[in-house]
Amino acid sequence: MKSIVGSPAISELKAQPLKTPRSLVILGLVSALAGLLLVFARPGALMRISAAIACAWITLTFPFAGLILYLLVEYMRPGDVMPSIASWRPALIVAVLTMIGLVIAKSKDRSQEIVWSKQSWMLAGFISTMLVSIITAIWKSQALQVTIDAAKIWIVFLIMTNLITTTYRLKQFTWVMVLLGFYLAGRSVFMYQRTGDFATGPGEGFLGDRNDLAMAMLVILPIAGSLFQSSEKILEKTLAGTTFVALIAGIISTFSRGGFVGLLCVLLGMSLLAKRRTIAFLTLSALLVIAWYVSPDSYKERIISISHYQQDESAQNRLYAWKAARAMFHDRPFFGVGPGNFETAYGRIYRPPGAPGIWRAPHSIYFECIAELGIVGCIFFGLLVSLTYLDCLKIYLSRTAAPATNWERRMAAGFMLGMTGYLASATFLSALLYSHPYYLAALTVSMANIINSRQLKTGGEPV
After folding, report:
1. Per-residue pLDDT, 109
2. Per-residue confidence (pLDDT) for residue 175, from 0 to 100
3. 167-195 vs 234-253: helix axis angle to the nearest 10?
4. Considering the entire predicted model, what is its pTM?
5. Contact 462, 455 (CB under 8 A)
6. What are phi and psi of 358, to 5 degrees?
7. Which contacts (CB < 8 Å, 24+ apart) does range 378-387 have?
8. DSSP-assigned states of every residue in 289-324
């Protein structure tokens, strides 16, 4: 047998320097670092670090997965379960990493253009108004902090409109929202059953108290209803219908009067936009009557107290706050007293004579907006909401001129009614910078862009 040791191929191989793959070097460094961590770090800290690294890698590599992760963090609030990570501001970190991942993905694929809509301009104008308002704000550091937090909403808005570019992704996102609504509803009912008192939110922010929790579920309620109407699979229809009923129970368990008003508006809107209006109206009315019948007497008394607002201390305090808001608007009509400055302005300057307490929140997005951001802020916010409604109506009424699928038309109705529920319940809440209207606006922009892209390919008219 001929020996191959002295063959030219083997000689050339010996002459070449040994090259170590870059991946092996990185793996070796990571292994060495992991070994050191195992020796010096606590197991709990090691698990958190490992989870953070894994989440960062997923977010940077798969930006859409990062967007879903952000949604989970926002609604499930892991910082309330593990207070040690609350100071890290995980939602902000995930949002920033997702934005970086999006930028990296866009730079790799030059054919993908940045999605920039009319709503993007309106939101940019809204944030710019807040920046200008800092100059004349009563408490400038507070105004700056609120503006920074609002900028996060704009970042997430841009992420959503640039990542939710297919029907598949839009369906994934809406289903995650609905499942999170089921989680909130189950938590709300469980907390009420355990304590015997109204259910409250898990912590600070847009889920902070019972009214905030009711609003969050109210926004998701019509989306669940739209999924129930448009789903063809029995499993999906069952899940959406179960979530719809659970959300109604969850809203009632919060004892929120603003949530009840919003619930009536959403159910009425759903019956008007349904294919069979009479059947839908009777069904939803029967469901509401049953919910009222099985609800506790304390809840009924609280809802009935709406008609006796003159004797209700909470209602009277809101009237004091709204009176002060009108005075703030009169003194500073263009840019207001500054974002997040209502309570400071109320306590220092504008507290009406005879009003109890020193600090008071505006307790209404409308008075909050005119007082803190003036007429300029109201214009940008109003245009953002109006454009969202207009796009939803165009999609819902499209039919043959610019055909949208039944699922898209149903979801347009869901987004529109979600915005209606927010605007109705926010009449009594300081919720101007809660994420709900901006998420709904982003989802509407994404769906309109998906339909327009499909229409351009088929030679049809865009929505």
Report:
1. 75
2. 96
3. 40
4. 0.84
5. yes
6. -110, -45
7. 380/122, 380/123, 380/125, 380/126, 380/129, 381/122, 381/126, 381/432, 383/122, 384/119, 384/122, 384/123, 384/126, 384/437, 384/438, 384/441, 385/419, 385/423, 385/437, 385/441, 387/118, 387/119, 387/122, 387/441
8. HHHHHHS-HHHHHHHHGGGGGGG-HHHHHHHHHHHH
Joined together, the tokens standing for residue 333 give 């009509």
73-81: Cβ within 8 A, 24+ apart: 74/435, 75/180, 75/183, 75/184, 75/207, 75/216, 76/180, 76/183, 77/202, 77/203, 77/205, 77/207, 79/203, 80/202, 80/203
Rounded Cα distance between 391 and 395, Å, is 6
Query: Could you report the per-residue pLDDT of 245-279, keeping only the tens digit for each?
Result: 999 999 998 888 888 889 999 999 988 887 777 88
Which pLDDT score is estimated for 307? 62
Residue 393 has pLDDT above 90, yes or no: yes
- The pLDDT confidence band at residue 194, using thresholds 50, 70 and 90, is confident
Paired tokens of 27: 């793996």
List the one residue out of 378, 254, 366, 364 whose CA is nearest residue 317.
364
Q: Letter for the amino acid at 41?
A: A
Q: How far apart are CA 9 and CA 85, in angstroms?
A: 58
Tokens of 83: 């207070």
C-alpha–C-alpha distance, residues 370 and 379, integer Å = 10
> What percent of the chain stands above pLDDT 70?
80
* Lookup result for tokens 């469901």: 287
DSSP state letter for 6: T
Q: Is 387 helix (H, G, I), strand (E, B) or coil?
A: helix
